[in-house]
Amino acid sequence: MSGKRRPLDDSNTTPLLPISTPYSYYNSVPSSSVEMSTAASAPAPLRSVFLGVDVGTGSARAGLFDKKGKLLGSASSPIQIWKNGDHVEQSSTDIWHAICAAVKSACSTAGIAGEEVAGLGFAATCSLVAIDADGAPVTVSWSGDSRRNIIVWMDHRAVKQAEKINSSNSPVLQYCGGALSPEMQPPKLLWVKENLQESWSMVFRWMDLSDWLSYRATGDDTRSLCTTVCKWTYLGHAHMQQMNEKDSRNMEACGWDDDFWEEIGLGDLVEGHHAKIGRSVAFPGHPLGSGLSSTAAKARYFVLKSSH
């Protein structure tokens, strides 16, 4: 492994939507949702269009829908993938650019202006993203290539780690069907710790791909209750027992089982109130951040309207 840190690519600020009037951008639904408001001088009435972005294994897809669910336009853009035996890796930078290309193409094809988009939702595979304190990718590959900072869902490098975790017979496993798959996040994390110590020490955030997309768009590190429960062993019932939904915007995570992480050899992820895997976990349907971050949109294309 080279150990060299790849700086965050400033060109990775391609806007998600075509040039249009100012808007505000908010996050919700399992991974994210966005609300946009038009400038006071914008013509009325405008259509309310909803944008869905789905990141699969081989491509990023964007679809535009009206209030009744009618598809108005769609587009896709391929994403790069590296395969070497049981190891399957991708690049978060490449995926972001693919999303931007698909969204712009879909809007152009459907004749949709940016100010007409009333909401945006992300969906993605159970893939693990590694980034450093600056948001730059950290390699999870034997190659040392920092672009390769995602362990894809189908990657089965962590079979032995999954067996080790399952042998612990932790009470947490009863909420995962009795055993973890090597495609889930804890076995992947344990593999990196055991095999790529330099990367392990460099990573500031470990994120599910869906949550990383929300973070990339807003700068808000709050994780989704959906992704953490389904892919990370977060105890959703404990979360819901202690929090009222109306107060769930940026809720301190209370569903992590610290004993479980200690038992499986990942007790360092408990540090800092689980800062590396999620200090805040929000119910689906709640906004994240203050809007589209300045790093997610080029100032020359947009006048960002923030909400405080």
UniProtKB/TrEMBL annotation:
<dbReference type="Pfam" id="PF00370">
    <property type="entry name" value="FGGY_N"/>
</dbReference>
<keyword id="KW-0418">Kinase</keyword>
<keyword id="KW-0808">Transferase</keyword>
<feature type="domain" description="Carbohydrate kinase FGGY N-terminal">
    <location>
        <begin position="50"/>
        <end position="246"/>
    </location>
</feature>
<dbReference type="GO" id="GO:0005737">
    <property type="term" value="C:cytoplasm"/>
</dbReference>
<protein>
    <recommendedName>
        <fullName>Carbohydrate kinase FGGY N-terminal domain-containing protein</fullName>
    </recommendedName>
</protein>
<dbReference type="InterPro" id="IPR018484">
    <property type="entry name" value="FGGY_N"/>
</dbReference>
<dbReference type="GO" id="GO:0019321">
    <property type="term" value="P:pentose metabolic process"/>
</dbReference>
<dbReference type="InterPro" id="IPR043129">
    <property type="entry name" value="ATPase_NBD"/>
</dbReference>
<dbReference type="GO" id="GO:0019150">
    <property type="term" value="F:D-ribulokinase activity"/>
</dbReference>
